[in-house]
Specification:
This protein folds into two domains: 142 residues, no CATH class; 114 residues, Rossmann fold, CATH 3.40.50.300. The protein contains 14 helices and nine strands. A hairpin with a 2-residue loop joins strand 1 and strand 2. The radius of gyration is 28 Å and the shape is elongated. It starts with a helix and ends with a helix. The mean pLDDT is 84. This is Zona occludens toxin N-terminal domain-containing protein.
């Protein structure tokens, strides 16, 4: 629900309740389509199915909802989002029929008017290529389902690594943060189901400061993306462990860092970074922050709850060296060395 609240930005008083009801109705179609069809609650328009409660009997639908209340309360969003605009419209009804209190009422034009802008934003979202390519709003069969791939990976004991690269995702609309948080929530959901009890999983997040301690905002409220913070705090008891790498420790919540038992620290100069490391290390190891600015290339300090003293280590150079050197400024080839000192102002202006 949070992801759609952020993407379509409903107003809290008039639009958000209708959005929640619409999502619940569409999820109900996924779970109980046969029962709903029996009572003639489901309508279809151009292949788009939606739940129509207008002037229909209340009791059968409420009974179906009560039987599935647990599934409807989860964060799973397994429904056809293409049905969302018309479902929002169908949620804009009166709760009771004045002539027959046992039925739902007719259309509430006032609520429908309030939800017009919400439906406009939903339709814009459905046409947005960046989001559609990631979330597959159009239901294209050729699209790869990452969560299905993840489930298959977890079921195959011969597979050791599952790698997901987000570098090609655009920064607009916080897409990277939203996608990463969705992945984290899925992993936490698997963990809470006990899927990692016998086969623990280590989840490694590179450039973790881009994904932890993040908040996305709409015009009305803010949404904290806290999946990885929750994994750090409670994942261990479910067999889900977290390893993060970052160049900006100051951007990681101290409450999250304090959940880690082992730290591998490279050279740090920024005072705030050093203070963060100082605060989360065991009291016996706090003196290492004085050595951090002096570390050379490839040197690290290892601190862990499993070792009594901190250890200074030199990392073996990799067989394939990364291309991480800073580019050097070169002299312009078109000028001979003997003429460099005779450059005139107009020559410099010509260069630039």
């Amino acid at each position: 629900m949070l992801i759609y609240s952020y993407l379509v930005k409903p107003s809290p008083n008039s639009q958000a309740p209708k959005l929640r009801e619409a999502i619940k109705s569409l999820k109900l179609i996924q779970y109980c389509e046969i029962d709903l069809k029996y009572y003639d609650y489901i309508k279809e328009n151009d292949g788009i199915k939606y739940l129509c409660k207008k002037d229909k009997e209340r009791a059968p639908l409420l009974q179906i909802i009560n039987k599935n209340i647990v599934r409807l309360s989860t964060e799973e969003l397994d429904f056809d989002i293409r049905s969302l605009p018309i479902q929002v419209e169908n949620e804009c009804i009166y709760e009771y029929n004045n002539r027959n209190p046992g039925n739902f009422g007719g259309t509430d034009d006032r609520s429908l008017g309030f939800c017009t802008t919400l439906n406009t934003r939903i339709n814009v979202l459905l046409r947005e290529n960046n989001f559609n390519s990631i979330f597959n709003f159009n239901g294209e069969k050729c699209t790869v389902d990452v969560f299905k791939m993840l489930e298959d990976f977890l079921c195959q004991n011969d597979k050791k690594f599952f790698y997901m690269n987000l570098s090609d995702l655009p920064f607009s609309f916080d897409i990277r943060e939203v996608v990463a948080n969705s992945f984290g929530k899925k992993m936490l959901s698997f963990a809470r189901q006990g899927k990692f009890k016998t086969h623990p999983i280590v989840m490694v997040i590179d450039e973790a400061h881009q994904f932890l301690n993040k908040t996305v905002s709409s015009d009305y409220e803010s949404f904290k993306l806290e999946a990885f913070d929750l994994i750090a705090k409670e994942g261990r008891k479910y067999g889900l462990f977290l390893c993060i790498t970052t160049q900006r420790p100051r951007d990681i919540p101290s409450g999250t860092l304090s959940q880690f038992g082992t730290f591998i620290v490279h050279r740090l100069i920024n005072q705030k970074d050093k203070e963060i490391i100082h605060d989360v290390l065991p009291s016996s190891n706090k003196d290492i922050i004085y050595y951090l600015p002096e570390l050379g290339q490839g040197e690290i300090i290892l601190s862990s709850t499993d070792i009594k003293e901190t250890i200074l280590l030199k990392v073996t150079e990799p067989k394939i060296s990364p291309d991480s050197n800073t580019p050097e400024f070169k002299r312009y080839d078109e000028f001979e060395e003997e003429n460099q000192e005779h450059l005139q102002v107009e020559d410099i202006e010509h260069i630039f």
